[in-house]
Design brief:
The chain contains 15 helices and 4 strands. It has 385 residues and is of the alpha+beta class.
Length: 385
Amino acid sequence: MKTKISNFFFLIVFGLFLTLTACHKTHQVKPEPTIPTNNITRSTSRSPAAPPPTLKTNPRESCESVAAFYNQGNDATEFKERVDLFKKALDQDCQEEKILAMIYNNLGDAYEQAGRYKEAIAEYKEAIFIKPDHLTPYIGLGNVYSKIGVHQEADSYYQQYLKRTLIKDKEQLHSSLSLRSKTRAVKPVPSETLYFGFDRADLTEGAQKQLEELLALLLDDEFSYYRFQLIGHTCSLGERPYNQWLSENRGESVKQWLKEHGYPAGYLEIIGFGEDKPIAENITEEGRKLNRRVEIKTVGLELKTKRSYRGEKEKDLLDKGHQSFSRGNYQEAASFYERALEIFKQDNFAEGIKTAHANFYLVYLELGDGEKAQEHYYEFLTMAE
């Protein structure tokens, strides 16, 4: 389940969840104990030394080498290479708890994909031990326990994941969606998730409350020029054509709500994948619940400044890049962004350069090129600060 975290930079999958009612599982498992995060040490099963007590906050200074190894591990196709790179990342002098949790999570994912479930469980639990509010290891544990037939334990972790995703403060939402989050250096794709009920595309009262929290963030100045995809999904119950239709309608429900409450509809794009991209096993109801969802994913940044352009219009090139991105033609999108960046640099137009780097970053995340994504991320981050 590589999408758990590795869908980009030591950085950004966006997880706000609307509780509606469609395909989900129901199993019960003991919650993982909450461990204070102000005095965490690594378990004795891991050879690297415990991180120092104070945290560095500049990813360039403390975690740049970690990001490099982590992103290379995400891009690697061979099991041994992936594991070795993640372990090298753990050997570096990075003390960010979330970043460490992301490494352990993806190390668990590598073991899970190789069918080494005992080791996968150990790594996922290590990620939770380090940072209990890091969500993806809960999904990993739910999926592993489902695969080995321990359904009560699987349901427990699925339930913990859902419970934690439904309660987010503004800071947590900002971290999920912002391109400025320091954990972007570890390559997660910026996104949030909303949940739906069985065979439903309408928003419940609880779901609308979640959207209200999200809207307050999206209307802030930083997010008012972001472009988002609303990506609908279903569980595996029902006929495939119907589930495709249902997934698109779920995205449409979210778009209409945001539009009615003031967010520009032109910055929102709907995609439906039906039952084809589950994040949890469809074996139990608790797992199916997590697959009935809409992901809100950051996919682009627009220019704030309106100005006159000379020659080949940079704004047109950015628009063409966004269109190519939406169609999944990421190499073509990169070529448009590159031409726009060249003109912005010739004009010494700082905002345009920053915007182009942000869009490059998102494209290379989709292409799975962690090194280039990281390069453009740091360029964007430097200018954004």
